[in-house]
Fold this protein.
Amino acid sequence: MSEAPAAPHTASADGPTGSGRLDLLLVPPRSRTGWRVLPARVVAMCVVELQKLRHDRTELYTRAVQPALWLLVFGETFTRIKAIPTGGIPYIDYLAPGIIAQSAMFIAIFYGIMIIWERDAGILTKLLVTPTPRSALIAGKGFAAGVKALIQAVVVIVIAALLGVAMTWNPLRLLGVAVAVVLGSAFFSCLSMSIAGIVLTRDRLMGIGQAITMPLFFASNALYPVAIMPGWLQTVSRINPLSYQVDALRGLLLGTHAHLALDFGVLVGSAALGIAAASSLLGRLAR
Amino acid sequence: MTTDGERRPTPDGGPRPDAVTCRALRYSFGETTAVDGVDLSVRPGEVFGLLGPNGAGKTTLIRCITTLLPVPAGTVRVYGHDAAKERMAVRRLLGYVPQQLSADAGLTGRENVTLFARVFDVPRRERTERVAQALAAVGLTEAAGRLAKTYSGGMIRRLELAQALVSAPRLLMLDEPTIGLDPIARTSVWEHINAVRAATGMTVLVTTHYMDEADQYCDRVALMHLGRIRALGTPDDLKEALRTRRRAAATATAATPPTPSSAPLASRSADATPTLEDVFRDVAGSGLDERSGDFRDVRSTRRTAHRVG
C-alpha cells in the first residue's frame, strides 16, 4: 500500500486540483536567515493587526471614549482649579500626553489575553511551528500592539487638538511621538504576555491587568509632576517606564523640558527586556 | 540512543531518509507518561495514520515531532533533521494543522493564508500567486475574500489545509482533521488531502480516532494506546492478522466459554472480516472505556465540535 506517492487515491468530481495550477506549492520558499527574520516577522504580525482593525473598527471607537472623558472631564475641570503646578502651561495641555500614554498602555496591558485566546484557539500553536524564533514571534506581537496603540494615539491627539491643546505639528517630532508610543506599547504588551505565560488563564490575567493598570498610571507623571509626589511614590515613578514615555511625549508634543535621550534609552531597554522575558515564558503557553 | 535501522541521508543519492523517525521516544507530564517508548518510521510519500482513543498519547507524539515539545528522551528525526537540535530546519519541512479550528476568524481566508506565506518567507513577488494556488487547491477561491468567521466547519478545515500547504511542506501533520465534522465535510476534507498529496507527493501524518477513516484513507496505520504503539502495518495486513489469530483461537478454544472481555469478539464468526476497530480492541485489551480520555480531553473535543457547529 505504500506505493509511489504520486498515485491518486480519490479524485473528487469537481477535481480540487484539476482546475488550477499547483506548481508553486511544490517548491519550498527560500528561507530568510540571520537578522532579516526579525523584521520580516514583525511586519507580518503588524499587517495582521491592521487587517483585523480594518475588518472590525468597533474597538477603535469604544477605546476612544475613555481618553476623551479624561481630557474632557478631568482635564477641563483641573484646568480651572489650577491646583497642579504644570510650569505655566494649561493643565489640559499638560494632561494630553499623559492620556496618550495611558490609552496606549491600556491597550497593551490586555494584549496577553489575546495570546491566551490564540493559544486556546490553536493559532499560537500553529505559529510556533513556523520557522519563527520565539523572540521574533513575541517581538512581532509586541510591535503589533504598538501599531494598534499608534492608531489609538492618533485618535487621542485629534480629540486633544479639538479641545484646543496646543501641540506641535513638526513631522520629525511627531515621528518621535510615534516611536515612543510603539516602544512603550511593546514593553507593556510584553509585560502582559509574560504574565500570561505565568498565569496561563484569561480570568487570572484579567484580574492582574485590572490590578496593575491604575497603579502604573497613578505612579507616573501622567497626571501630575513627579516633584509633588511623596518620596516613596517618586521612587516607584522612577522605575515605571510609563513615566519616561510620558516625559518624552510631553517634551516632543509641547516642547517642555524633557530628558529625551534617557527617555528613549529606558523605553528601548525595557522593550528589549520585555521581549526577552515574554519569549522565555512563551514555552509555558506552547505545551 | 540506538539509531540502527534508521536510513540516513547520503550525499550520493543513496537511500532517502524516512519522513519521520522516532526512536525510544518518551514524554511525561509530571507523573503521567503520555508517550512511553515509541519507535516509529513514516516513509516518504505515504499517508500514515496514528490511531487511538483520547489520551492515547497521539497529540503528545505529534507535538514532539512538530518541535512544540522538547524531546526529553529518545530521538525524533524529520527527513534526517533532529527535532531537538535543528528546530528551524524541521519546521520548514512541516505543515501543521492542530486539533482546534485554528484559522483566525477576524481575517479573510486569503489573509489567513497570506500570513503563513509571510512567516515562511515567501517573497513578495510570488506571494499573491502562491496564496491563490493554495486556496485553489482546497476549493476556496470563491470564498477567499470573506471573513473566516462566516465559513462552515469544513471550509475552515480546508482553509487550515491551505495555510499549511502554502509553504510547500514535505510533511503534512494533521491532528484529528475531521473531528466534529459531518460526514459530507469529512469526505470533502479527505478528498482534498488526497488530491493535494497526489499532486505534490508530500508525506501525510494524520491522527484520528475514526477507525473507518483510517481504514479507507491511510496507507499504513499505527494503533496507539496508553503511550505505546500496539500494532503497526497496512489496514489490510492488520485485519488479516487478526482474522488469522481468531481462526487459531476459535479452533483452540472452541470448547471453553468466552470470557466477558472477549465477548464482542467471540460473538462474531471467526471467518467474518474484522474491522480496524476489532483489531484495536484486540491489541489494546479490555478496559478501553474506562481509560480513554480524561475530563479535559473530552471537554476540549466537545469545544472543538461546538465551534464546528
Remarks:
- The longest helix of chain A spans residues 134-162.
- Confidence is low (pLDDT under 50) at residues 1-19 of chain A.
